[in-house]
Specification:
Helix content is about 30%, strand content about 15%. The chain has about 500 residues and is an alpha/beta fold. The protein folds into two domains: about 170 residues, Aspartate Aminotransferase, domain 1, CATH 3.90.1150; about 325 residues, 3-Layer(aba) Sandwich (Aspartate Aminotransferase, domain 2), CATH 3.40.640. Helix 9 runs parallel beside helix 10.
């Protein structure tokens, strides 16, 4: 065994990893990467099929991001953001605000009520105008939670703010973020540390009790038969809380697709309906776009219709490509009050996160020094210059014509190649939202019968994929494919082929 592998086994405790299993085999130790390819210490090459846990956008060792970091290193790597500003973070904040608001115009008026009701929102303006930097997705959520909690109290909305989030929701591993999540497998051991939040049904079409459609060889969203009972459940939840006294202070959601729940996509129109309900009940909209941000949920091929609204976002020419949705919320015309970003913010290079919010929420923390209305929250590496420099380069790449073209092409290639998986009996559902794919494995697709947890079906399939030179990580028995945007057609075809062959090997 290589010395580095020995050191890892001796000293390193890995996240979300059963270390007893880890210690039974020699680990893969990555030493180099370029584009969509990773290389281990033995010289073996692998395709990075989950973008290094959903973070890497443009590929490893990208020359433009490398150059931006080298330029910044000649100036300064980090200085405190407590009472000091810096150049790249200031520039980045401005660009994030512009990116978050640029798609919204007269077709999507920022102050318009949405959803089933047309009651006027109690919040005057939902335009995002302020950026609070932090370190990762969990801290971006913690920031949003604290801001929403204190805003509700100071605005006289509630003396005891309460939050609603989705069943199967995952928002991070810090205590506030864990309290908002509803995946018992991750969180039940910490229940004694958590404050109470409520959950409501999420639109899991494949396993929805209200979906009367029989299992078919197609994405369950496309052949569902229901009456939007999942939306009714949300409406009832808000109404019931209102009857008990204070309404919910915030509604926390992952837009278009829930990641750690098992890549659970929402049917078109669901997001706009439920956020409209939340808005009509006076709840702040807290969008967790840690996974979905920066183009992950796709590029419209011709136009992006906003379900239920009759509105469209035309496919612009290159001179107006800023209006291509960068965030999942924008694809349904939803305007959050707090937008949480991380993962892809720096292109997968450095830990950095951001929470965007409105002027109204920002103003609630203004006051004289002795009033102690300051937002008492911060991190040592907040707004660090290296992370901001990488993020600025990342945004330039994201907005380039080449990136738009390759993202659109990769999205189409994945859709085409994934159709071959329906021929495999252990494949229950194939779910694609833009450049995010979840393939749910089952024992019997006609009955949607899951594998027993002890069979470790997802882990074994991913192991067989690794032997074929493709690396990804399952969520239970859901196999995730989320390649970097630079992935070539041949590489994408190889990723899907490796998954197909691995399923046949392990589960046939």
């Amino acid at each position: 065994m290589h010395r580095l592998s020995q050191l890892d086994r001796q000293f390193v405790w890995h996240p979300f990893t059963q270390m007893r299993d880890w210690l039974r085999q020699e680990p893969i130790v990555i030493v180099e990467g370029r584009g969509a390819v990773l290389r281990d210490l033995k010289g073996r090459e692998y395709l990075d099929a989950n973008s290094s846990i959903w973070t890497n956008l443009h590929g490893h060792n990208h020359p433009k991001i490398n150059a931006a970091l080298r330029r910044q290193l000649k100036k300064i790597a980090h200085s405190s953001a407590l009472g000091l500003g810096n150049e790249p973070a200031s520039l980045l904040a401005g660009k994030l605000v512009d990116l978050a608001n640029s798609i919204y115009d007269s077709r999507f008026p920022i102050d318009a009520p949405t959803g089933r009701t047309a009651r006027k929102s109690k919040i005057a303006n939902h335009k995002l105008s302020k950026v609070f930097f932090s370190d990762d997705g969990s801290t971006a959520i913690e920031v949003a939670l604290k801001m929403a909690y204190e805003f509700a109290r100071r605005a006289g909305r509630s003396s005891k703010p309460r939050f609603l989030s989705l069943a199967g929701g995952y928002h991070g591993d810090t205590i506030g973020a864990v309290a908002l999540g509803h995946i018992d497998l991750f969180h039940k051991n910490y229940s004694g540390l958590l404050f109470k939040t409520d959950e409501v049904m999420s639109p899991y079409c494949y396993r929805c009790p209200f979906n009367r459609a029989r299992p078919d060889r197609a994405d369950a969203r496309t052949c569902r038969k229901c009456r939007w009972e999942c939306v009714d459940q949300v409406e009832r939840k808000f109404a019931a809380q209102r009857k008990r006294g204070d309404g919910y202070s915030g509604f926390v959601f992952e837009p278009l697709i829930q990641g750690a729940a098992g890549m659970i996509p929402q049917p078109p129109g669901w997001l706009r309906q439920v956020t409209g309900l939340a808005r009509s009940h006076g709840a702040l909209l807290i969008a967790d776009e840690v996974l979905t941000g920066f183009g992950r949920t796709g590029v419209p091929n011709s136009e992006c219709r906003v379900p239920g609204s009759g509105s469209r976002v035309p496919q612009p020419g290159l001179e107006t490509r800023n209006t291509i949705p960068a965030f999942a919320c924008q694809q349904e015309g939803v305007h959050p009050d707090l937008l949480c970003l991380a993962k892809g913010l720096t292109g997968g290079y450095l830990p950095m996160a951001a929470t965007l919010t409105t002027q109204q929420i920002f103003d609630a923390f203004l006051g004289d020094y002795e009033e102690f209305k300051t937002f008492f929250h911060g991190h040592s590496y907040t707004a660090n210059q290296l992370g901001a420099a990488a993020a600025l380069a990342n945004l330039e790449l994201l907005r380039s014509a080449d990136c738009l073209r390759t993202r659109r092409g990769l999205q189409a290639i994945l859709h085409r190649e994934l159709q071959s998986l329906w021929r495999l009996s252990p494949v229950g559902d194939v779910r694609q939202v833009g450049l995010i794919v979840g393939v749910e494995l089952v024992r019997n697709w006609r009955a949607r019968q899951p594998f027993d947890l002890r069979e470790r079906a997802g882990i074994r399939v991913c192991g067989a994929m690794a032997r074929r030179g493709v690396l990804t990580r399952p969520i239970g028995d859901v196999i995730v494919l989320m390649p970097p945007y630079c992935t070539t057609q041949r590489q994408a075809e190889t990723m899907v082929a490796a998954l197909r062959e691995a399923i046949r090997e392990v589960l046939s």
